């Protein structure tokens, strides 16, 4: 396998583990990702579509399904009524925090067969990749 193949299979492994965690909370991976992306602060729908790599239409459909479960709410921005802000409801916040905590606890298990030095290297590289991507929890919209 070449490098691209290995990255592909690493992605599959991570996605599978994440999907298992989400299913335990009766959420799809996309619903959980959406909740975790807005758990700490409301975000603009346009920002979320770009950050999650979704079309605005696909995001609206995801939000519709998640809103029906009373996990998110939409509101017009106070500064510009054309801008739609998405935030978690109290129920969504509890669920997002639980999924996020469980994910950060269990996802590192994908590297459990690596020695301590390799695990630290993976952590350092994963941090560098995420930081360079411009997508992180601290990015405001």
Automatic annotation (TrEMBL):
PROSITE patterns documented for this protein: HTH_MARR_2
Domain of life where this protein originates: Bacteria
Pfam families attached to this UniProt entry: MarR_2
Residues annotated as domain HTH marR-type: 1-131
SUPFAM superfamilies: Winged helix' DNA-binding domain (SSF46785)
InterPro entries, per the entry: HTH_MarR-typ, MarR/SlyA-like, WH-like_DNA-bd_sf, WH_DNA-bd_sf
Protein name: MarR family transcriptional regulator
């Amino acid at each position: 396998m070449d490098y691209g193949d290995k990255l592909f299979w690493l992605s599959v492994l991570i996605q599978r583990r994440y999907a298992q965690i989400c299913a335990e909370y009766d959420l799809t991976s996309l619903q959980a990702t959406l909740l975790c992306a807005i758990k700490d602060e409301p975000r603009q729908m346009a920002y979320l579509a770009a950050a999650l790599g979704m079309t605005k239409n696909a995001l609206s459909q995801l939000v519709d399904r998640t809103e029906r479960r009373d996990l998110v709410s939409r509101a017009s921005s106070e500064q510009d009524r054309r801008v739609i802000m998405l935030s978690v409801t109290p129920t969504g916040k509890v669920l997002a925090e639980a999924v996020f905590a469980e994910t950060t606890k269990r996802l590192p298990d994908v590297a459990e067969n690596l020695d301590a030095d390799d695990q630290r290297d993976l952590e350092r590289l994963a941090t560098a990749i995420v930081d360079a991507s411009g997508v992180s929890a601290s990015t405001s919209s």
